[in-house]
Amino acid sequence: MKDVARLAGVSTATISRTLVSPDKVRAETRERVMAAIERIGYAPNALARNLRQMRTSTVILLVRQIVNPFYLELFRGVESAARARGYNVLMSNVESRPERELAYFDMIRERRADGVILATGALPSRRGRAPALPPMVVVSEYLPRSGLPTVRIDNVAAAAGAVDYLVTLGHQRIAHVTGPLPEVLSRDRLKGYRRALRRAGIEPDERWVARGDYTTRSGHAAAAALLRRRRRPTAIFAANDEMAMGAIKAAREAGLDVPGQLSVVGFDDINMASAWDPALTTVAQPSDEMGACAMDRLADLLAGDDTRNGDDVLETTLRVRESTGPVPRRAN
Amino acid sequence: MKDVARLAGVSTATISRTLVSPDKVRAETRERVMAAIERIGYAPNALARNLRQMRTSTVILLVRQIVNPFYLELFRGVESAARARGYNVLMSNVESRPERELAYFDMIRERRADGVILATGALPSRRGRAPALPPMVVVSEYLPRSGLPTVRIDNVAAAAGAVDYLVTLGHQRIAHVTGPLPEVLSRDRLKGYRRALRRAGIEPDERWVARGDYTTRSGHAAAAALLRRRRRPTAIFAANDEMAMGAIKAAREAGLDVPGQLSVVGFDDINMASAWDPALTTVAQPSDEMGACAMDRLADLLAGDDTRNGDDVLETTLRVRESTGPVPRRAN
DNA sequence: CTGAAAGCGCTTACAG
DNA sequence: CTGAAAGCGCTTACAG
Fold it and tell me: Nearest residue to C7 (CA, C1')?
């Protein structure tokens, strides 16, 4: 920087101003400075700038389990918005290890990051001396009554919409494979399932609700059990795509054609959903957009101009593909 | 820090030493300092430390396309090693946009990161004034004759091993779906395929090599074309799992049972491979370990004690699942 | 519009 | 083993 200043015949303050707020510098000076910067190949040292400004331009994205492809799409959205806003993104999977979550809060205390995008569905439980919450935006998941800015979808309505569609196709015996029920997202999707059934005049039957844990394996097991029933369902709505894929596998093993004898609907529209055989009908979340929106809100928060309040609720889309069809003739 | 120093009755230098090199501080002083730190709830400011030490403790992981699940596993490995070594990881997908790669090299120049783990398969082409390469380790991919420290598998041998296995099952008519052929990994796997065939006394037939681009769709199209032949293959070796999945889908559409009438082998062992129907036989890469190993080498490099030279070549494993079986009776 | 100077919060070579 | 002091490379309030 000193070299640039010498070459341009100005002070280092002017170099800095040219870079940070060029409008405060006379055009002629600015050009001289830019030429010198170019000549020397100068790049400002972010370390020094960060210290001076007491900001890192880095945010942390905390996800539940990184292997879930849904989070990947979320990350893409976060990253592209971050790039546009001049931030870097540190993604980290927590994998249900609370100490890892806390490690990330320490990173904020140590000023390694400016804020957090929380996609884990729960605030880290804090030890004795509860540190103040860092600037934070919740995405995908939400924390009821936390008052934190949140970017999400309406899981109840989206799930109900999927089941509505099955009803439209003539299905009455619609089963549901849930996610882990302590989680609010799983509960919301279950609620939507029940709401749609009632709306269609069908009394929800608890025996047609099977618990899964979002893995393909659990979807497979749950569906296998449901299909062993004497009166078996003609449609299964799974709370995510992986479980829907497991359900299709179970149907095939039971000798049932999908969608001829069993319709299956998933949730998320992960990358693999359209590649699956049969291509999966599923509720698409705008994951890119959700990530970008969360990053934008966090950046606003950090810039001190968070005008908005409450939740951003984004739209979902039911993508009808090959895994759903009209109810089989003899089934009703 | 000043507050801690006052409370402990020492200078800030001693606080710093207690944290950085505790052995240089008398035990009694150390305890007093630690108590004061605890009392005040002091956390050192990483921004200041970074500036002082001229290091960021951050590395960049550059991947080709983030949606590829393989990179996810790589990231996990990198991240866990990074955590152990005190580094943060910035993952970024380049998505074949060269300007993005360059952006990451700028980040090094601006001292936002200390080094790069390159998983893109190509050095960013640099503009006119070629800047010096940053501390860098290549992983998964490799750059022939670059002399850069590299962590990889032996793609030729691994591919040959997969084809050997098909030969063992009695297959003679073994087709191959390649990745994009400009890429060295795709070429290596093709080379391994040919080598195994020759070893088995089968003359490679170019008509049984179909080009794909690593997507499920391309695997589907390539396999569909192969299966339309009058003499159709009894086995397909695909250069990655997604294409193998597409191939299975094509087989089913052609009314062929997998593995009864067609065996399919993939490469990578992504998360979905075992969930696929039928569960995919595939060459498992030690992706976690590769990532961790790359991060370790980069950390050594940055610490100035990179003793090793040349490539780390890790072992692959053929995971035999349900998509492969003996050659059908009438086929030979 | 520009410069001189202070200061961000650490770490570390040096002196004792 | 400990302290006083310099300094990392910027940015910015202040003065002109």
Answer: A52
Residue with tokens 């593995």: B259
Interface test with B, best of A72, A105, A287 (most B CBs within 10 A): A72
Top CATH class of A2-44 equals mainly alpha
Q: Which residue in this structure is represented by tokens 């062992």?
A: B269
- Single pTM value for the model: 0.91
Tally helices (H) and strands (E) across chain A. 11, 12
d(CA A209, CA A243): 13
**Domain A155-286+318-331 falls in which CATH fold?**
Rossmann fold (3.40.50)
Query: Domain residue spans in chain B?
Result: 2-44, 56-153+288-314, 155-285+317-331
The 10s digit of each residue's pLDDT in B188-246 is 999 999 999 999 999 999 999 999 999 999 999 999 999 999 999 999 999 999 999 99
B9-29 confidence digits (pLDDT tens): 999 999 999 999 999 999 999
CA-nearest residue to A243 within chain B is: B275
How far is Cα A130 from Cα A188, in angstroms, rounded to an integer?
Answer: 30
* Separation between Cα atoms, residue B130 and residue B112, nearest integer Å: 19
* Contact (Cβ atoms closer than 8 angstroms) between residue A93 and residue A86: no
B51 CA: nearest nucleotide by C1': D8
Continuous H helices in A229-307: 241-253, 287-303
Distance from CA of A17 to the nearest CA of B (A): 17
- Shortest CA distance to B203 belongs to which of B214, B192, B211, B195? B195
C-alpha–C-alpha distance, residues B259 and B261, integer Å? 6
Spatial distance from the CA of A319 to the C1' of D8 (Å): 56
